[in-house]
Amino acid sequence: MANTIDPSVLNNMNLGAAAKKAAGSGSTEDLSNSFMTLLVTQLKNQNPMKPMENAEMTSQLAQINTVNGINQLNDTLDSLTSQIDTGQSLQAAALIGQGVLVPGDQVLKKDDATTPFGVELDSPADTVKVSIVGQNGEVVRTIDPQQVGALQAGTQSFVWDGTRNDGSTAPDGAYHVRIEATQDDKAVPVTALNYAQVNGVVTTDTGPRLDLGAIRGQVGLDAVRQIL
Predict the structure, then answer these.
(1) What ranges do the domains of the chain cover?
(2) Which family is it part of (predicted)?
């Protein structure tokens, strides 16, 4: 005569909980096999005078289906994340050797050339004033708002011609750009952008990062506002 097991004992084992535990340590197939083994054992050893109710069996089946679905969803998300990482790496690699605008306020002048700079506005501005400032804080050149004109929200790029306010040529070196923007005499949030060249791509746990050299350092793809 087969030994009988009180169904309350197996019920207390909580098949759903056991399935969830298996989900954290095995594959979807292992999870299903573990659940079915527990369920068949419970059915074989249940008290024939008190068989498992249909609702109870349905509930336990629903639990395993839920855990199984979560397991499959996690696998899908892992696959999508891997594809996104691969796509970002390819995108980053395509930027090697390209010039980009990233948050920063530096402008470099050498001989008759200067690096571009940019303006990023959160909202439209009817007046934008740009000042080129030297290392000691002196204003070397003020670009008249009429020259800049009204700007829409977003990113705009500019080039300083390398001259001072008096028309003379500014010496070579590093300068800073200072930007003030208003709309109907109210200040508009603005971010200055500076030029950098992408020298390489560094792979990290958080995704690819662009190597912009010793001065600019490394930035993520989301820092790129414009490709020049």
Answers:
(1) 7-93, 99-227
(2) Belongs to the FlgD family.
Q: How confident is the model at residue 46 (pLDDT cuts 50, 70, 90)?
A: low
Cα-trace Rg, the chain: 32
Contact 101, 224 (CB under 8 A): yes
Eight-class DSSP state of 153: S
Is the pLDDT at 81 greater than 80? The verdict is no
Q: Is CATH 3.40.50.1700 what the domain over 99-227 is classified as, yes or no?
A: no
Asked whether the predicted pLDDT for residue 130 surpasses 60, the reply is yes
The pLDDT value recorded for residue 215 is 76
Q: What is the pLDDT of residue 10?
A: 40
Q: Is 169 helix (H, G, I), strand (E, B) or coil?
A: strand
Greater model confidence, 79 or 212:
212
Q: How many CB atoms lie within 10 A of CB 181?
A: 24
d(CA 140, CA 134): 6
Quote the crossing angle between the two packed helices 28-44 and 54-93, to the nearest 10°: 170
Compute the distance between CA of residue 195 and CA of residue 117 in angstroms, rounded to an integer: 6
User: Rounded to an integer, what distance in angstroms lies between the CA atom of residue 200 and that of residue 96?
Assistant: 6
CA distance readout (Å), 74 to 27, 60, 70, 81: 12, 21, 6, 10
For 156-195, the pLDDT digits (tens) are 999 999 999 999 999 999 999 999 999 999 999 999 999 9
Helix axes 54-93, 15-23, angle to 10 degrees: 20
